[in-house]
Design brief:
This protein is of the alpha/beta class and 389 residues long. Helix 1 packs across helix 11 and helix 9 crosses helix 11. It comes from Micromonospora auratinigra. GO terms for molecular function: carboxypeptidase activity; metal ion binding. InterPro entries: ArgE/DapE_CS (IPR001261), Bact_exopeptidase_dim_dom (IPR036264), Pept_M20_glutamate_carboxypep (IPR017150), Peptidase_M20 (IPR002933), Peptidase_M20_dimer (IPR011650), Peptidase_M20A (IPR050072).
Amino acid sequence: MGQLLAAAGDRLAAYHERLAQLVAVDSGSRHVEGLRAAGDLVQAWCLAAGMAVEREPVADPAGRPLGDVLVARRRGTGTRRILLAGHLDTVFPPGTAATRPFRVQDGRAYGPGVSDDKGGVLAGLAAVEVLTALDRHGYGELVLVCTPDEEIGSPGSRPLLRTLGAEADVALCLECARDNGDLVSARKGVADLEVTLRGRAAHAGIEPERGANALLAAARLTVAFDQLNGRWPGVTVNVGVLEAGGRPNVVADRARMLVDLRAWRVGEYEAALAEIRRLVAQPAVSGVRAELAVHAPTPPWEPGPTGRRLAELAAKVGAGIGVPVAHTATGGCADANLLAEAGAAVLDGLGPVGGADHSPGEWLDLDSVVPRVALLAGLIDEVTHADLP
C-alpha cells in the first residue's frame, strides 16, 4: 500500500500541470470546439501513458454535434474489464476560463470544471499511470471513457455508454468525492419533462368566454405536479420554468413548462412518470390540449450486491493507505446511472475531494489528490482478483 502512495506522489507534479491546462480550456456542453480541444489534451496524455485511443463524434437527437467521446484502452494480463468513466463538459459558457482562470489558494484549486469533472478525469489517468509504474497489470483491460455531454444528460453518448457498461465487469466513476470525502454508491433517477399547452386566444374584456386559457391550465397542472411530492418516498417533482401568454388583455393561447422529476427507485420513478402522463392527458381547462416530451430519461441507480462489495473493497484499500472510506447516496444524476442500467457494477465519487460544483466557487482539495489516486489505483488492483457476487 505504501508503494501506491509513493507512486501517486510521483505523479502529483504532472497532475497539477495537467489540471491547470485542462481547466484553462472552456468546454461547456455544446461548445464543440472547446470540448475537442480538451479531448486533444487528454488524448495526448493517454497516448503518452501507453493507452490506445479512439474518438467517436456524437450528436443530440436533433443531429446537432456535441463533440467527441474519447475511449482509451490498456490491455492487462487478467480477465476483468474495468471501466473508468468521466466527462469533459462543464456547465459554464465560453469565456469563463478567461474571466475566472485556474488558481491555487490555501491548498485548493479553483476554476471552471476543476472538480466536476476535470480533476476526476485526470485522477483516472493518474491511477492508470500508477499501476503501470508498479507493474500491476492483473486486469484484462482498463478502459477510460470521457464524454462531452454528461451535464445535459448524455444524449449523444448514451449508446456507447450502454455498450461499454454491458461489456464491463466493473465501472468506477470519476466524479469527485463529496466534500466530506464520501464515495457515491447510489443516485436518483432523473427525467427532464417539457409540457406544451395549446389553448385559444380571445379578447380578455369583450369575449373571454371564447378563449381557452393555456396559462390557467399550466398553473393548475403546476399545483397538481407539486402535490405529487411525498406521494412516493424520495420522489420530487419541481416545475422550474413556466412560460405563457404575451399580453394581459389576451386569453393566453400557449404555455410551456419545464419540469424535473427525480426518484430513488425504479418502480417509484416509473409510477410518478405514469401519473404525470395521466395529468397531462387531462388538462384542467376545457379547450386546452397538452403534450408531454420526456428528455434524457435516466433511471435510478439502485445499489446491488456487487456495488456494495465494491464499497467494501474501497474501504479495505483505504484502511491500508490511511484514508477512511465511507459512501452515500446522492440526488444528483450522472453517467453512473446509465452504466448501472447497462449491467455494470458501479461505484462513483472516486476522484479527489471537491465541492461547490456548478458555481463560481467550485474547488478541488489538492491535498486529497495523492491519497485518492492511490485509493483508485489500489481499488482497480483489488478488483482484478477479488470475489464479486
